[in-house]
Amino acid sequence: MYAPRRPTTDSTSRFELPTRSDVDSGAVFDALADSDCRRILEETTDDALTARELTSECDIPTSTLYRKLEQLAEVGLLEERVRIRRDGKHASEYRQAFADLTVSVSGDSGVEVDVSAPADSQSAEPLLAVNR
User: Fold this and answer.
1) What is the greatest pairwise CA distance in the chain?
2) Which residue, 127, 118, 37, is CA-closest to 75?
3) pLDDT truncated to tens, each residue of the chain (132 aa)?
4) What is the sign, positive or negative, of the torsion defined by CA atoms of 63, 65, 68, 69?
5) pLDDT value at residue 10
6) Cβ within 8 Å of residue 33, ≥6 positions away
7) How many whole angstroms separate alpha carbon 96 and alpha carbon 91?
8) What angle (nearest 5°) sits at the alpha carbon of residue 59, between those of residues 118 and 17?
9) Which residue, 20, 36, 67, 81, is the most exposed by fewest CB within 10 angstroms?
10) How far separated are the first and last CA of the chain, in Å rounded?
């Protein structure tokens, strides 16, 4: 569905959170300026949701939703994982990929965006969620 920005070593996650030098502040600002993107980030703060769940929760047409998901993933604000189901119909799920986003402005380096990973990103939470 999406071409990963940078491949990860984990085959269950298609995007890796960018490092400080990788973050395109203009692209982050564009994503945050979009009301649909902000709504998706709000809905995925606590729980990973599938596109179907997000379409319902956010009241966004499916075709628009997929464009917004790609936009958010490309700038490192959203991560995509695989939800494994017993019936074999696996689904992608999406969750917010940051704990904090900080904007800094200085005369030397201009505008910088620092995206920090969630505290639980390396925790015991499984990368594969099983839907029973």
Assistant:
1) 56
2) 37
3) 333 334 333 434 444 444 444 668 889 999 999 999 999 999 999 999 999 999 999 999 999 999 999 999 999 899 999 988 889 888 999 999 988 888 888 888 788 888 777 766 543 333 333 333
4) negative
5) 42
6) none
7) 17
8) 20
9) 20
10) 24
Contact predicate 94/49, CB 8 Å: yes
Let me know: does 30 contact 12? Beta carbons within 8 Å: no
Query: How far, in Å, CA of 128 to CA of 111, rounded?
Result: 36
- What integer pLDDT is reported at residue 118 of this predicted model? 72
DSSP state, residue 125? S
Its pTM stands at: 0.70
Q: Which residue has the tokens 């490092």?
A: 19
